[in-house]
Design a protein that fits this description.
Elements: H1 11-32, H2 34-63, H3 77-90, E1 95-98, E2 102-105, H4 106-123, H5 130-147
Helix pairs in contact: 1-2, 1-3, 2-3, 2-5, 3-5, 4-5
Length: 151
């Protein structure tokens, strides 16, 4: 469940995750320390794997097509999603750059990320696991609530 977050489908997948980890992880590490970043990464990865398995156990049998599951559980996306979304929750008015060039308010980017993942789960099989990403989103929300003293 953890080693899948260190494997990737292709170089583009690896590159995208590492760019997100570098830019957003650097900010989280500067603010809370590298130990917190590591804990957030591992918790995001494990929770993403649990969400992936839960989707496959409870939702996928109703949507399964001939040939089995088409969405692999590979990559750091759930862990990186936890890191990116925590940064967005902490700084919702910050400008982020979509594809490194297009300025977008962080809150809007967060809504787009979570919305796209909800759509992927509703739609069913795709090349991207929306459920894993949502696991990372839950970890970010829990970490944010803890930082704010809500839990």
């Amino acid at each position: 469940m953890l080693t899948s977050s260190f494997s990737h489908m292709d170089l583009k997948h690896l590159f995208n995750n590492m760019v997100g980890l570098y830019f957003f992880g650097s900010s989280i590490a500067r603010t809370f320390g590298p130990g917190f970043l590591f804990q957030l990464y591992v918790t995001g990865a494990l929770t993403g794997s649990v969400f992936y398995l839960a989707e496959k156990i409870f939702l996928a049998p109703r949507k399964e097509v001939f040939g089995g599951w088409k969405t692999p559980c590979l990559g750091a996306s759930a862990a990186v999603n936890a890191i990116i979304l925590l940064e967005i929750f902490l700084h919702p008015t910050k400008l982020l750059y979509l594809h490194l060039f297009i300025p977008v308010p962080a809150a809007l980017m967060g809504v787009g990320l979570i919305g796209a993942d909800l759509w992927r789960v509703k739609k069913g099989e795709s090349r991207v696991s929306g459920s894993s990403h949502l696991g990372g989103a839950l970890v970010a929300a829990a970490a944010f609530a803890e930082i704010k003293g809500w839990i």
